Amino acid sequence: MRGRYLAGLITLALANAGLGAASADSGADAPKWSLAIHGGAGVIERGSLSPEQEKAYRAGLDEALRAGAGVLDKGGTSLDAVTAAIHVLEDNPLFNAGRGAVFTAEGRNELDAAIMDGRTLKAGAVAGITRTRHPVDAARAVMDHSPHVMLAGEGADRFSREQGLEQVDPSWFRTEKRWQQLLEWRKNHQARLDPTHRYGTVGAVALDASGNLAAATSTGGMTGKRWGRIGDSPVIGAGTYARNGQCAVSATGSGEYFIRESAARQVCDRVAYLHRPLAAAAQETIDSVGAIGGDGGLIAMGPEGMPAFALNSPGMYRGQVASGSAPQTAIYADEALPAKK
Ligand code: ASP
Predict the structure, then answer these.
(1) Which of 86, 204, 207, 289 could in theory staple to 294 by disulfide, Cβ–Cβ 3.0 to 4.6 A?
(2) Exposed (0-12), middle (13-18) or buried (19+): which is 176, by Cβ within 10 Å?
């Protein structure tokens, strides 16, 4: 299996076969558990971040990896691990999820999130919620405590409240940087999509010690979104998907295109039906998103704990950690994970 992964290492599919390159052919050295995260993809070029900014992003990713790893290392579930990692990123104002979310055209923060359990294929999602501190918790509550998969708008806000999830004043989500991005967007407000191309959606995929996969994604969407626009993140099979034995995926980028390509499910289908190595499946999916005009990236996790990262934009905040190895982070497209020794 791992031989296939290695064969699939190509350009921007920065597969982490190195959880061990040396152990490519044997499952014996497969990690007990594994976690990969992203903090959004976009035009993040070398030189576009100051050293301090870069350090802050890497520290944020590292903190999220450690939170998820803490869960997995104690034998916790992949669902709890992706939730824990995303909590950290939702509270970090650098990322476009929870606090730090981008603004709608009307100057509001409307949050989308989803989670999927690869073991049961149960899933939950919320779209356009406005008061839940941790949107991923609302998605999880939909999965665990409702007969539905996706709730939107006011009803979703009400459900979250009724579930006793932490509610905050909408100003909690506001950051000056995102407000300035909205003002910039308004200047050319006919722009169809976010002209700043600075995303920051967050996502996590994990394999736990019991062999179960999970995926979750959380976002404020895109600057200047209108009319109740919902992106790919909360759409199961587009921005988020997990199925034991195949893969777990969280995507980020221009969501409209990821929806049209059923991107997250497409990665798993390529693995399951075309028998593609995960890294190749990830890259081919991003290529198909790119072919219709979309940009961004995705993270994927295979059933043996092998992560893959694929992107067609200049950068994606991302990271990985697994049993027996320290957390590692990357930002620019040409950075390999794991870092070359
Ligand atoms: N995919 C998200 C959306 O379209 C945005 C992002 O990933 O930055 O809502």
Answers:
(1) 289
(2) exposed
Architecture of domain 2-16+33-332: 4-Layer Sandwich (3.60)
Per-residue model confidence (pLDDT) at position 16: 40
Q: How many angstroms separate the CA atoms of 332 and 75, rounded? A: 32
Query: Which atom, in ligand 1's list, is nearest to the CA of 296?
Result: 7
**Strand 150-152 relative to strand 123-129, pairing:** parallel
∠ CA 206-66-322 to the nearest 5 degrees? 45
Predicted pLDDT at 6: 33
Atom of ligand 1 nearest to the CA of 258: 1
Residues 271-319 have pLDDT tens digits of 999 999 999 999 999 999 999 999 999 999 999 999 999 999 889 999 9
Q: Is the dihedral of CA 186, 189, 193, 197 positive or negative?
A: negative
What's residue 264's pLDDT?
98
The reported pLDDT for the residue numbered 29 is: 74
Domain ranges of the chain: 2-16+33-332
- Sign of the C-alpha dihedral, residues 63, 65, 70, 71? positive
Cα–Cα distance, 334 to 315 (Å, whole number): 8
The token pair that represents 257 in the structure block: 């295109």
Distance CA 61, CA 315 (A): 14
DSSP state of 27: G
231 lines ligand 1 (CB under 6 A): yes
255 C-beta closer than 6 A to ligand 1: yes
Instruction: Give phi and psi for 276, each to the nearest 5.
Output: -80, 145
Question: What pLDDT does residue 132 have?
Answer: 98
Asked if residue 232 has its Cβ within 6 Å of ligand 1, the reply is: yes
Tell whether pTM > 0.85: yes
Report the C-alpha gap between 142 and 216 in whole angstroms.
Answer: 13
For residue 189, what pLDDT is reported? 67
Please compute, for residue 127, the number of CA atoms within 13 A of its CA located in the half-sphere on the CB side.
Answer: 17
